[in-house]
Design goal:
321 residues, conserved putative lor/sdh protein from methanococcus maripaludis s2 fold, 6-stranded antiparallel barrel, 4-stranded antiparallel beta sheet, 22 strands, rod-shaped
Amino acid sequence: MIMKKITISIMLVAILGVGGVGVYKNITAKASTVSKTSQFSKVKASIQSIKKSVSGSGSVQSSETQVIKSANKDTVDSVLVSKNQVVTKGQELITFKNGSDAILAPFDGIVSDVSIAAGDSINPSQQLITVFDNKNFYTTISVDETDLPNLKIGQKADIKVNAYSDKKFTGTIKDISQQGTYSNGVSNFDVIIAFDSADNVKVGMSTEATIVTESKDNVIAVPVEAVKDVKNQKYVIIPKNDGSTTLQKVEVGISNGRMVEITNGLVTGQEVEIPQVQTSNSSSSKMRGMGGFQMMQGEGTKNSNKSSDNQVNGKNSGQEN
């Protein structure tokens, strides 16, 4: 019986010891948790020019590349060009010893590959030389299916070639894929944009293309994070002179992802608040945008839950237009 009591006591000590370690770790983890407090910054509604666009990255590709193959069995007499050489349409490239027609350049371009040498015996359909068009280039971007209705063939695009960051290129949509690629619940479609001109551009260079689908000048706008959805309506937070705030219903127009047009509900110069989160785990604070009004309503830093609910329901919506 004494031995049993000793055994049980040892087990209890062991369990309590493990439990103590767990509690200690939990307390330590809580102590190291970053604290977050509500913060608000004020911005004024201002006159802006807003462009809504679709963009994507790709690379420079040649509009035409031709791999030239032999028509007959023969022996190469001479190869008159070398790799990376510029050629013109109709220029003689390869000749043969046994009567086969000489190989001519099919168009102006550059020789990208030479697969044979003088004296080589060749067979029908053997690859001989490759030429690509070095004047007509295009780039392909992948576009989300939701943006596709805003695009059409002939639409203009701005193209940035990363090798020439200080130079602007333009292009035109030449083709929109009729078949998308489905991945992770979203379908994307290839859009081919032809360069209008491509001085010093080389095949393979990386690109970024932007297609403006809608633009408006001289409109009232605020940062997108200032506008919130509440019960399928759009609202902004308006600060009052006494330090309190009210929700103001607004109507919105186009957005470029950074600024959003306000078509009704605000005037130029009117202040709105942007709810943010401040991380205070160091001497410096990091601010970022918040979504919704939950923090404001839940913490009561600006208004009580009852007051916010009444304003959302239209009982105290402030300066609603």
